[in-house]
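Hi V.,

Quick status before I head out on leave. The structure for the redesign project is tokenized and pasted below; the design run finished overnight.
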């Protein structure tokens, strides 16, 4: 599995500073935040010169970009992000489902819309990764499996986030085993409890919360997952660069050690 970090953790600084801090914390992979209104480190409005600068930035820091977090289901914006991902040679775009938990009509509409977005992603030779999200139509293991059974386009996959699954009153390790090869990427973090609110950044650091992180990682290994584990810590927009770097470094150290123990058998 590939240890990466989402730049949303460094929402208080520019993309150059975020990438440099992520590399210095020991990561080899990065996910760019393109979340309008929260953290837009890269934008569909980036011109060719900016694309070249970002490519150079990644190379200079020894990082590979594995995904873009778009966090939208707006077709027009997503198509522009798909174009950006293609120009940056980034293979995965992460979204939620939209819609509302427990509302059947909303769920049907969300699944139908995701089907059209998967087709669009396929036209760009990208993977659209849908994350079950607290409060949205696709929110737990079963609703995600429903999505993948009704939308069979090869460009559609699942984004595995143990914190959202845990807050949906599920055990992430069980979900990993049930999803198997449907998992194409992972937003990885902890959480303090099963309450729907995610909690402050320190409770999201893997190993500080209540999710059984080692069991979750073992389950991912058992199903053969070898893709990115992108640390996604939200709510750190007011953090200083030093504070955000501390979160990144502690998380990377803990996850790296867990993976070492799994690989040692």
């Amino acid at each position: 599995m590939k240890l990466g970090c989402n730049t949303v953790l460094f929402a208080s600084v520019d993309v150059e500073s975020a990438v440099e801090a992520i590399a210095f914390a020991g990561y080899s992979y990065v996910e760019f935040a393109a979340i309008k209104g929260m953290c837009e480190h890269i934008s569909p409005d980036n011109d060719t010169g900016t694309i070249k600068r970002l490519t150079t930035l990644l190379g200079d820091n020894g990082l590979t970009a594995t995904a873009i977090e778009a966090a939208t289901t707006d077709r027009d914006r997503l198509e522009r992000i798909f174009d950006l991902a293609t120009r940056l040679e980034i293979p995965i775009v992460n979204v939620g489902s939209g819609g509302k938990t427990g509302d059947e009509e909303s769920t049907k509409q969300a699944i139908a819309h995701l089907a059209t977005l998967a087709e669009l992603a396929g036209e760009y030779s990208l993977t659209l990764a849908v994350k079950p999200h607290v409060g949205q139509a696709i929110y737990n293991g079963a609703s995600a499996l429903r999505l993948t059974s009704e939308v069979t386009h090869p460009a559609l996959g699942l984004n595995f986030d143990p914190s959202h699954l845990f807050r949906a009153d599920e055990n992430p390790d069980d979900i990993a085993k049930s999803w198997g090869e449907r998992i194409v990427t992972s937003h990885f973090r902890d959480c303090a409890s099963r309450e729907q609110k995610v909690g402050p950044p320190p409770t999201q650091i893997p190993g500080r919360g209540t999710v059984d992180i080692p069991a979750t990682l073992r389950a991912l290994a058992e199903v053969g997952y070898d893709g990115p584990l992108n640390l996604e810590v939200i709510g750190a927009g007011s953090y200083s660069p030093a504070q955000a770097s501390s979160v990144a470094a502690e998380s990377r150290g803990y996850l790296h050690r867990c993976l070492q123990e799994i690989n040692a058998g």
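Above is the designed sequence. The chain has one domain: 2-263.

G. will cover questions while I'm gone.

Best,
W.
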